[in-house]
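Hey, I was hoping to borrow your eyes for a little while. There's a protein on my desk that I can't quite get my head around. The fold is given in discrete form, as structure tokens running alongside the sequence. I'd be grateful if you could look everything over and explain what you see. Here's the protein in full, and shout if anything looks odd to you:
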Amino acid sequence: MAVVCEIVERALGRGVHVDRRRELEPCHVNEDIRVRTADGRVSVEDSVAIVGQVSGKELRDRFVSNIAAMSLGLVRMRGNSMRFGPIEILRFGRPKVTRTGVQWPIEGGLAAGGAGGQFAFRSAGGRVVATLDGYRPRLPLGIYAVTQRPFHHLVMRLHLLWVRGRVPSPGVPAGPARRLEAGAIDVALCAAVAMTAGRGRRLPALVGITLAYHVACWSISGRTVGGLITGQRVVSVDGSPVSAGQSLVRLAALPLAALRLRAVHDQVAGTEVVAD
């Protein structure tokens, strides 16, 4: 057990220290997440690097289609409302579309504590930026910070990464054989730990260990033990670090990738596996 812990620590630690030694290479400088709260209102901003320019009309239209795709059709934009079935989650005013961006004024909805603030996307300076500015959540800020805000960040980030696309690649893609080898190592490691620690509840232990292990490794350094051994890591498609939300989405989509025999989980999570 001590050996396993040491290996995992090396996988996480090596990723962080190597990246620092490289003086914050592109996979770290590309992520720009900012959160501010004042007078009960919240502002969240995220951005990703992009090649070329995206029009405001495309940002608007892509968001409408992407929000439905992300939620498997459960959440949709209907007119100026974001709805979960019959429930109006957020109500927006008429969108203002410019040459390089789009913004929706927030007018209400179940998730909003009142009118005010705006939700916007813009393309400028080689980046595409998402902002939720001056939003007043209905939930107390402490509860909002651990429930609704991570969801806002995940939706914004996935939309930006999907708009950015997978080309150009953030690095040299790892080959299928190396990816399978790394996956096999990680499965064996998680199974070994579950067999040792799970005792009479090995299946629940395996699920919990697999979840915690992959989310921690991917979101902290991009490297699992298998990735460390085979020389590869997971990054966002713009080269920035993978967020915890992306890691959860990627892990949840792995069974679908196995069924289709292609990297659907990377397409959904906006990630890529690159040679390290």
Summary: Residues 14-31 have pLDDT under 50 and may be disordered.
